[in-house]
Amino acid sequence: MTDELGAHIERLERDGCTIVHDAFDVDLADALHADIDRLERELHIQVGGNGFEGRATTRVYNLLALGELYAQIPVHPVVLPLMHHLLGPGCLVSSISAITIHPGEIAQPIHADDQVIPIPKPHRAVTANSMWALTDFTEANGATRIIPGSHLADHSPVYGQHYESAPAEMRRGSILVWDGGLWHGGGANTTDAKRRGIAMNYCAGYIRQQENQQLGVPLDVLRSFSPELQELCGFGVYKGLIGHIDRQSASQRLLDPDSPNTMLWDRT
Ligand SMILES: O=C(O)CCC(=O)C(=O)O
Predict the structure, then answer these.
(1) Is the pLDDT assigned to residue 144 strictly greater than 90?
(2) Of 29, 215, 231, which is closest to residue 136 (Cα–Cα)?
(3) Closest Cα to atom 5 of ligand 1
(4) 7 burial via Cβ count (<10 Å: 0-12, 13-18, 19+)
(5) Residues with CB under 6 A from ligand 1
(6) Prediction pTM value
(7) CA–CA dist 250, 268 (Å, integer)
(8) What's the pLDDT score for residue 37?
(9) Choice from 60, 144, 165 to test ligand 1 binding pocket (greatest atom count within 8 A of CB)
(10) For the segment 104-129, what is each residue's pLDDT rounded down to a tens digit?
(11) CATH number of 3-204
(12) Range(s) for CATH 2.60.120.620 in the chain?
């Protein structure tokens, strides 16, 4: 393990979050930013109509279905090993969406991404998240608010209650990574410019993905992905057991009949 990875893991375990500074090229940030403008225009994206998605926040979901640019996001060379550390091998893309907080937005209620999962807390991570900064993230423009150490709490936050939190400020091109148990929320935007990021959410290979990648991404798009990304989308068989179709992986059945697959039972 490199020193860099070790330091991130230490922070993830202690604080429940870490920032990978300058994790991707600013040219890529600009290209993603411009493409999300295109998607918002073409898909007629409107602000969320509720207190959680935000009344001055736009979201574009299911990004892997919407453009080649997004295929490089789930496999980031620093973030993916951190996800493997938190969630174990065989972890999955849970959801991938663009979140744009517009001027005037108020702070999102503090929540934990795993709070709908009914297992006693604290528990080892079953979901983990990352936020790719496509603009600078500042306290004023709505940087994600975090409560370091809250992933170790024995309960989830009370929805709508005020909690003291800190802004995860970072330059465009950086990535905030957090344990799915961390209490957090989008910040208020008091500036006159948008704050935009891509929320790349992962889950362990044995639980259900938040966005259904197998049905939500067209097969011809999935076939263009690397085997690693296909597996992240849920086309493999977790530990040779979970997710098979008549003893075949979804990849063998739907994407490539020659893709490798060994059922756990065949190893006995
Ligand atoms: O936009 C952000 O900074 C965080 C958003 C978030 O946590 C969510 O929508 O679940």
Answers:
(1) yes
(2) 29
(3) 186
(4) exposed
(5) 99, 108, 131, 144, 184-186, 199
(6) 0.97
(7) 22
(8) 98
(9) 144
(10) 999 999 999 999 999 999 999 999 99
(11) 2.60.120.620
(12) 3-204
